[in-house]
Amino acid sequence: LAPPLLIGFTRSWPILLQAVVSYVTAGWPADQIFVVENTGVQQANARGQLTLQNPFYLNHTILRTLGVNIIQTPTLLTFAQLQNFYLSLTYTKNWPYYFWSHMDVLTLSYEDGNEHTPKYSDKGYKPIYTLALEALQKARRDPRWGTRWFSYDHLALVNPLAYEDVGGWDTMIPYYITDCDMHARLAMRNWTMLDAKAAIITDVSTTIDDLLALYRVDGIEAKFTDPNPPPPGKDGAVVARRGDEKDDDENLRRWRKLQKTADTMFHYKHGDRGRNTWQLGQHGGQDEPFYYNSAGFAEAIEVTTESGREVFRRKWGHRDCDLREGAGLEFGDQWMVEKDF
Ligand SMILES: *[C@@H]1O[C@H](CO)[C@@H](O)[C@H](O)[C@H]1NC(C)=O
Ligand SMILES: *[C@@H]1O[C@H](CO)[C@@H](O)[C@H](O)[C@H]1NC(C)=O
Fold first, then answer.
1. Is there an atom of ligand 2 within 6 Å of 319 CB?
2. Which domain covers residue 287, as residue numbers?
3. Which residue in 119, 212, 218, 241 is a FRET match for 194, CA 20 to 30 A apart?
């Protein structure tokens, strides 16, 4: 049974669509991809009731056309709840393992070849899916394998047994720092978390102007424009780099152009603009079902995040991520220790 790839979605449809298309064009089988709609808008998207400027807009028709699956969460879940929801799917769907990825990534297989695979035109070429399954095969030789990470945690492979052993994610720590809590607990129980390589998975906040570039359609060049430009006066120039290398192989030339564009998009995201501004681009949807003010949503998430940090501090008596190495804490110390700050 092939492990599925889960991609959670809350807002910013163009970014999600790019992630999905990039996985498909990188060679991940569409029918193994599950977009998890976690918008809190109930059936509104399935019925086509939202419009493009609504941050929670998701087009079911387009996803189905791409051949990917859609799973809806019954209500809006936090990050930690969503992770536990993924775990719950392993029971209802009998998935022994699963991959999950962030929605703000752009994925390219190693088409130019490297130490992990020959280039696309050579015998034995391994696209992302092959390398990801090989990483799974290798992980399974380790009886304590917990997770495998590709390109930091842009894509992760999960062993549900490990998650189960530590009691899953702590939903009282809903967003940031919940990963510290989870990964520390996995390490405390000796589950291994190792890095693996399968593709170039780039963290982005913008989209390529025309996703057909990912399909290498003739005449479509990879470039991007900021959909949410900063106010005039601030430096927000978008650099759309040209694929100007000389390359005899037109396919590789297009691939390199894509790779460069993705790289430029990465630097753009991690520049002065602040990495999460992409989530604030759409603010329409007033009068539509389950409308929620978009700035209010962002602010509420910040408040919830901060409350989670406080739970983390009280749970471990420690403020930072280094629970084991820094504070010498063990699994049984949860909620049992005096604070060290
Ligand atoms: C979804 O996309 C299809 C195809 O582009 C389009 O015809 C349809 O109107 C879209 N649905 C919504 C709700 O925007
Ligand atoms: C984890 O490994 C350490 C060192 O080998 C061992 O002392 C400890 O008992 C192990 N803990 C668990 C939960 O397996």
1. no
2. 1-316
3. 119
